[in-house]
Amino acid sequence: MFWRGVMLDITDQKRAEAKLRRSLEILRQTMEQRRELVARLEEAQEEERRRIAADIHDDSIQVVSAADLRAQALARRLEDPELRAEAAELHDTLREAVERLRHLLFELRPPALDREGLAAALRQYLDQPWGGPALEAVLDVRLDGEPPPEARAILYRIAQEAITNARKHAEASRLEVRLLSSEDGVRLRVVDDGKGVESLDLANREPGHLGISAMIERAELAGGWCRVEGAPGVGTTVECWLPLGWAVSTHAEPRDA
Ligand SMILES: Nc1ncnc2c1ncn2[C@@H]1O[C@H](COP(=O)(O)OP(=O)(O)O)[C@@H](O)[C@H]1O
Ligand SMILES: [Mg+2]
């Protein structure tokens, strides 16, 4: 009787263990599927952005620039001062249109990211006028080589969000962006000396404010990590690390050295 009781106990325990293992396996598979899905979505989005950016660069900007040149040529032939003033206004409007298209290009996918690499793209992004007060921006790049395209795009997106946040929310006077090759990967740090993101902001992220979550998600998707820390009077630091040598849609484990 006693032995039977013990055996039943053991059988129950084994059954429970097997059930738990199965549940864990299903959970692991679900997480893996979700990760792959998000990675594909991210890839598709980058591709779409690249295509639209290329169209804007090769088509829209060229056409508007050509119109601007013609407006300037026309202005030179006008003698009536009133008409000349109007032509000058037309020239200003067209120049503004080109500037806005260029800005859009940088938000979408700067051609420099594919052509000249991450550092050049970030330099250009920082140099773009952004419509707010001037902010001293330092870019310090110490990379052993150019990160592969997927890592490059993710690092650019994270830096872009961190820079935009510093410009939009921090009221900072100085911004530092550092890229460093380290521990089989790339480390990115964006530091501002502004009012500091509050831990409350980080804990209770409001609906519709997805920037910080997206930075963390992107880094983790690539097998890395991203941390955002801030305090009043100290500023905000966004730090992330991405492993190199992974392929987004297959596996995200860091490559062995
Ligand atoms: N560099 C920063 N300095 C100060 N506050 C920040 C900074 N970055 C983010 N925050 C705060 O955290 C909130 C969430 O940021 P985020 O998730 O990027 O959403 P969003 O930029 O759309 O508001 C911001 O609304 C802001 O209050
Ligand atoms: Mg944001």
Task: Describe the 3D structure.
The chain is α+β, with helices and mostly antiparallel strands and 257 residues long. It folds into 2 domains: 2-108; 116-243, Histidine kinase-like ATPase, C-terminal domain (Heat Shock Protein 90), CATH 3.30.565. Helix content is 61%, strand content 16%. The protein has 7 helices and 5 strands, in the order H-H-H-H-E-H-E-E-H-H-E-E. It has helices at 2-77, 81-108, 111-115, 118-127, 149-170, 199-203, 211-221, and strands spanning 136-142, 174-182, 185-192, 225-231, 235-243. A 5-stranded mixed beta sheet has the order 1-2-3-5-4. Strand 1 (136-142), helix 5 (149-170) and strand 2 (174-182) form a beta-alpha-beta unit. The longest helix has 76 residues, at 2-77. The protein is elongated and about 115 Å long. Residues 247-257 have low confidence and may be disordered.
